[in-house]
Amino acid sequence: MTIGALEHGDTATNAHDLSSSSSSSTSQPRRRGSRPPRSPSSTRSSASTAPPRSSTSTTTTKRSPSPIITFHPAPLSAENAKGVKNITRKVIKRLEGLGHLEMVDLVDLGEEEESGGSSGDGVRSGGEEEQEVEKVLYAMGREAVKKAQVTNGNGNGNGHGHAHVEKVKKATPDLEIPRKVLHGSIGFFTLYLYISEGDVRTIVLVLWMALAIIIPADLLRFKSQRFERLYERYLGFLMRESEKDSINGVVWYILGVNFVLSLYPQDIATVAILILSWADTAASTIGRLYGSQTRKLPARLPLLRLPLAPRKSLAGFSAATVTGAAIALGFWTWVAPLRAGGRDVSWAWEGGVRAAVGSGVGEGREGLGAGGAIGLLAIGLVAGVVSGVAEALDLGSVDDNLTLPIISGGCILGFMKLLGLGAAAYSGSSWFS
After folding, report:
1. What's the rounded Cα separation, in Å, for the pair 42 and 60?
2. What is the dihedral of CA 316, 321, 323, 328, to 10 degrees?
3. Residue 175, Cβ neighbours under 10 Å: how many?
4. Beta carbons of 299 and 310 less than 8 angstroms apart
5. Per-chain mean pLDDT for the chain
6. Is the pLDDT of residue 239 over 70?
7. Could you report the per-residue pLDDT of 45-74, keeping only the tens digit for each?
8. Is the pLDDT of residue 229 over 60?
9. b/e per residue, 301-321, with b = 16+ CB within 10 A?
10. Quick one: DSSP state of residue 348?
């Protein structure tokens, strides 16, 4: 009885164990389904750090360890990698306004992506992520091509599948119109003072008085931010960006004008101021408009080896040269005779170069020669070349508003002296006779 009961109890116990193990095994998938998926790294780490199970517990529960799932991203093929590089390069060129996009390459790439993207079992791999990148780049390229087609009228119609991208419009150059208007108006005011026989000493005195106000105000704006804001609010439209951190160009302008008015004859000083006012303005305006379409000037002037500014262009140099020559020709033809009947000019149509050049007294003196059209053309040619070269010189931080009238006026004055010497030697007369 006891033995039978024990056997019956063992049988019941074994059946209970089997049923519990089977129920645990059948319910195990549901518990796994409720757990969040674990990454391969966490699975590996948990598997490596977990204490080893005893053989008894493994035999009793009959549970297998959780499977370790690893992901191996599939590398792109050589063709797809090349396609990504090509599309990337073309998209970058489109965004930068360079090159053109080829519709054939884009369509072929799109068909390859569509055919390759249809396969898969719903599990995202590294290869599919790379394909998503390709699709994004492909969509950007298609959008760029469509925009180019709309802009250019659905392509150029040559049948080659090319759609040229619209060229990026160049920014309109800043012509500094208010500054140029003030710069050029000084030339007309100078002509008025010359024709009306204004007193040169009075003009120079007024300019020095103006400079006595401008220089302290210009220095004060470097010390006081409040005054700087007020200064630039009312006068900033006449200043360049480079002048906001340095001395105002008006200071150098007045210094150059006073220099030539004080040391040169009145007609040559007037021509030098006109070159500063008009030739410099023409060079700056034409250079900004057409300088990019012409060659840059060489680093040094041929023969004389004078340094030229690297930013100067052939267009600006030509404008300054033509304007300077026109100023000299027009002034000594029509303007110079209007002041005091042409008695105190340095050159006249009849008689040519006057002995008064550089002496300050020449009224009643006879001409030394080199008059007429030949002498005028020679003076105009020299004035034009000197204007272009003086405007293009690179003298470091020295402002051209100071150097341009001094150099141009000095060169014209020196040429007239040489012209007078040559004419006097040819006629057998002396320079001072």
Report:
1. 27
2. 160
3. 12
4. yes
5. 75
6. yes
7. 444 444 445 444 444 445 555 555 554 555
8. yes
9. eeeeeeebbeebbbbbbbbbb
10. E
N-terminal to C-terminal alpha carbon distance within the chain:
166
Which of these, 179, 368, 373, 340, lies nearest to 266 by C-alpha position? Answer: 340
Q: Alpha carbon of 291 to those of 157, 173, 297, 323: distances in Å?
A: 34, 11, 10, 17
C-alpha distances (whole Å) from 380 to each of 281, 384, 396 are 19, 6, 28
Q: Which residues have a Cβ under 8 Å from the Cβ of 5 and sit 6 or more positions away?
A: none
Neighbours of 369 (CB within 10 A): 19
pLDDT of residue 216: 95
Give 3-state DSSP helix, strand, coil % of the chain, rounded to 5.
65, 5, 30
Type of residue numbered 386: V
Q: What percent of the chain has pLDDT over 70?
A: 58
User: Can you tell me whether residue 68 is helix, strand or coil?
Assistant: coil
Cβ atoms 68, 59 nearer than 8 A: no
Q: How far is CA 201 from the centre of its chain?
A: 45
Q: CA 370, CA 358: separation in Å to the nearest integer?
A: 17
Q: Is the pLDDT of residue 197 over 70?
A: yes
Specify the higher pLDDT residue, 405 or 29: 405
pLDDT of residue 117: 46
pLDDT of residue 46: 45
User: Residue 405: what are its φ and ψ, rounded to 5°?
Assistant: -70, -35
Q: Is residue 16 over pLDDT 50?
A: no
**Residue 222: its pLDDT value, please?**
93
CA distance 26 to 351: 127
How far is 99 from 390, CA to CA, in rounded Å? Answer: 41
3-state SS track over 95-125: HCCCCCEEHHHHHHHHHHHHHHHCCCCCCCC
Lowest mean pLDDT among 86-90, 152-156, 418-422: 152-156
Q: Which residues contact 318 (CB under 8 A, 6 or more apart)?
A: 286, 388
Beta bridge partners of 369: 352
Report the SS3 class of residue 197: coil
- Range scoring the smallest mean pLDDT among 53-57, 201-205, 352-356: 53-57
Cα distances (Å, whole numbers) of residue 180 to 176, 257, 282: 6, 17, 9
